[in-house]
């Protein structure tokens, strides 16, 4: 709901815009992703993709946010990726993934379709970045096999996190993909789907 009126300008807020949903990953609320089966993780991935298609954008860390505007971080990512593709002819994060796969300096885990790296710009301890190996703009653009291999690499990564200190490791993770809604009519080929993990 929109916030009520306030008698002081510090407590006035803009009218609410967008949608917020909460998604439970499993009927057992204490079961984390690395302890789920690959089929159960795949069901979560399919639900994320369905929500992304339904809402037009997603940030699937238990909460899913979709808005009618580009938030600051996404606007910066859009501009940076667009500039790189314009100057170099290839999506920035696709080129970055290829370089990290070749160098293997910051590689955490990989499979045929995905890789997880500690990005060289990391600012958080244990921060990682999940990237597809092929050019993918949006989560819902993944093929069946890529969704299966995504479930596998997520389980491997999250198991590694849990094993660091032998505890269920807390993290925030979100999918960043090409904007949708009115942007579906625009060329978004500069975007590369990615998911940062912030433990």
TrEMBL record:
UniProt-listed InterPro entries: GalP_UDPtransf1 (IPR001937), GalP_Utransf_C (IPR005850), GalP_Utransf_N (IPR005849), HIT-like_sf (IPR036265)
GO biological process, one term: galactose catabolic process via UDP-galactose, Leloir pathway
Domain Galactose-1-phosphate uridyl transferase C-terminal positions: 78-199
Cofactors demanded by this protein: Zn(2+)
Gene3D superfamilies, sorted: HIT-like
Entry GO CC: cytoplasm
Keywords: Carbohydrate metabolism, Metal-binding, Nucleotidyltransferase, Transferase, Zinc
Gene Ontology molecular-function annotations: UDP-glucose:hexose-1-phosphate uridylyltransferase activity; zinc ion binding
Top-level taxon of origin: Eukaryota
Residue ranges occupied by any Galactose-1-phosphate uridyl transferase N-terminal domain in the UniProt entry: 6-64
Pfam families (UniProt xref): GalP_UDP_tr_C, GalP_UDP_transf
Family: Belongs to the galactose-1-phosphate uridylyltransferase type 1 family.
UniProt-listed NCBIfam families: galT_1
Protein's name in the database: Galactose-1-phosphate uridylyltransferase
Source taxonomy: Eukaryota, Metazoa, Chordata, Craniata, Vertebrata
């Amino acid at each position: 709901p929109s916030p009520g009126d306030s008698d002081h300008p510090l407590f006035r807020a803009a009218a609410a815009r967008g949608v917020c949903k909460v998604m439970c990953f499993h009927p057992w609320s204490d079961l984390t992703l690395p302890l789920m089966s690959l089929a159960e993780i795949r069901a979560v991935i399919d639900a994320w993709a369905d929500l992304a298609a339904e809402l037009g954008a997603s940030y699937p860390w238990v909460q899913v946010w979709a808005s009618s505007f580009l938030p600051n971080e996404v606007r910066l990512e859009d501009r940076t990726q667009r500039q790189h593709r314009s100057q170099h002819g290839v999506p920035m994060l696709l080129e970055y993934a290829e370089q990290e796969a070749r160098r293997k300096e910051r590689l955490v885990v990989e499979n045929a379709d995905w890789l997880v790296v500690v990005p060289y710009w990391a600012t958080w301890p244990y921060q990682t970045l999940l990237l597809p190996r092929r050019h993918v703009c949006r989560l819902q653009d993944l093929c069946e096999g890529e969704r299966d291999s995504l479930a596998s690499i997520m389980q491997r990564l999250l198991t590694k996190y849990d094993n660091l200190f032998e505890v269920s490791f807390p993290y925030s993770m979100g999918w960043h993909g090409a904007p949708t809604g009115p942007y579906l009519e625009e060329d978004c080929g500069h975007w590369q789907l990615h998911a940062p993990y912030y433990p």
